[in-house]
Design a protein that fits this description.
The protein has three domains: 121 residues, no CATH class; 118 residues, Leucine-rich repeat, LRR (right-handed beta-alpha superhelix); 125 residues, no CATH class. The chain contains one helix and 28 strands. A hairpin with a 5-residue loop joins strand 2 and strand 3. The protein has an eight-stranded mixed β-sheet with strand order 3-2-4-6-8-10-12-14, with no helix packed on it. Strands 23-25-26-28-27 form a five-stranded mixed β-sheet, with no helix packed on it. It has a four-stranded parallel β-sheet with strand order 1-5-7-9, with no helix packed on it. The longest helix has 6 residues. The protein has 375 residues and is an all-beta fold. It is elongated and about 80 Å long. 2% of the residues lie in helices and 25% in strands. The relative contact order is 0.06.
Length: 375
């Protein structure tokens, strides 16, 4: 037992209650009477052996509820990782013990609930619960600092998950394809990976206002058609490509909360539900087709954006706006540019052709769409 570091079990029919023996094997008592020799629904395993550093349980059958006790972290500081691939009958997993620092359960296709609140997990591994189709509830420990790439990707029934208060990093596509309805991110968050909430069809709200994020990565909430409310950090400087593409319920965006925004990436809001935009003064770059296909968009106010190179952007055939920033916005009827440009620029860009100068004011020069042809 003194040399035990790894224990792996493959194809083992579990029978409770069980504990590690002196040889690093499982001592299994007989099943309760009436079980007809079969494994009962609930199984508890004692993994508190201080020498054990990794435990794997692969393709084991007979248990629907599995409780793993990793024990307390002793003076020797030996930590424990748990990996449960393809335990096909398992529906609920509870992991206890401050020694436990890592859990993964890919391929447990019937798993509906994971509870690891009473552990010391700091890093949820990449692909930790990748494409577990029945998973609907996850309870995470307050010690968690990092959610790995693809950690919950493809968990299409996952609705209940509260982000722990000390999380610092969320990996690429970590929650993509889940059914999470709202997400509040903690002030400690420093990195939110590309596509973290891609294709979250039930996501209604994402609150990033407490964070100090400078960048919203590409495809962050892309293809999330129910997303209606986005709360932003005041530190934000850049929204990258596809970030909110096809978010058709996103009708309002808090531009006033991000006065330091400098860059809008290509296709960032393409096909979204925005009805108006009022871009901040710090904006320097507008990417291609940023608002293209926004069918509800009626007004675009760029009157504060004095940092943009307007001669290049509006008149040149190679300008950002001429790359179709407002293409296919059929309801767009009014565009506001910085004061003093009304008599010097010509809106030739796709989606803006035919707009004509109306008036100047302190808030900018107003251009209007041409009148529709008579029926």
């Amino acid at each position: 037992m003194n040399g035990l570091e790894f224990l792996g079990l493959w194809g083992y029919a579990l029978i409770p209650p069980q504990r590690l023996s002196g040889q690093g094997q499982l001592d299994a008592k007989a099943p309760p009477s009436g079980a007809a020799g079969g494994a009962p629904a609930a199984v508890a395993l004692d993994l508190s052996n201080p020498k054990l550093t990794q435990f794997e349980l692969c393709n084991c059958t007979g248990a629907t509820l599995l409780v793993l006790d990793g024990g307390e972290l002793g003076a020797n500081g030996v930590e424990l990782g748990i990996y449960l691939p393809e335990c096909e009958t398992l529906t609920e997993l509870k992991v206890n013990g401050k020694r436990v620092v890592s859990v993964a359960a890919t391929g447990c296709n019937r798993l509906t609930k994971l509870d690891c609140t009473d552990t010391s997990i700091r890093h949820l591994p990449d692909y930790a619960l990748f494409e577990v189709p029945s998973l609907s509830e996850v309870l995470l420990p307050t010690t968690l600092r990092r959610v790995g790439h693809f950690a919950f990707a493809g968990c299409s029934k996952l609705e209940v998950l509260a982000m722990p208060p000390l999380v610092e990093r969320i990996g690429h596509l970590a929650f993509s394809g889940t059914s999470i309805r709202d997400m509040v991110l903690p002030r400690t968050l420093r990195k939110l990976g590309p596509g973290a909430f891609y294709d979250c069809v039930k996501l209604v709200l994402i609150d990033m206002s407490a964070t100090a994020l400078y960048t919203l990565e590409e495809s962050l909430c892309c293809e999330s058609p129910s997303l209606a409310t986005v709360k932003l950090p005041a530190t934000l400087r850049s929204i990258r490509q596809f970030a909110f593409k096809s978010c058709t319920s996103l009708m309002d965006f808090s531009w006033g909360d991000i006065p330091g925004l400098e860059r809008l990436g290509n296709y960032a809001f393409q096909g979204s539900g925005l009805s108006s935009v009022e871009l901040p003064a710090a904006l320097k770059t507008i990417g291609a087709r940023v608002f293209a296909g926004c069918e509800r968009l009626e007004r675009a106010d760029l009157g504060k954006c004095v940092g943009l190179e307007w001669t290049r952007l509006v008149k040149s055939s190679r300008s950002d706006i001429s790359q179709g920033a407002f293409a296919d916005c059929d309801r767009l009827s009014e565009v506001v540019l910085p004061p003093g440009l009304g008599t010097t620029v010509h809106l030739r860009a796709p989606g803006l052709r035919g707009f004509h100068f109306i008036r100047s004011g302190e808030s900018g020069d107003v251009f209007r769409a041409p009148d529709p042809p008579p029926p």
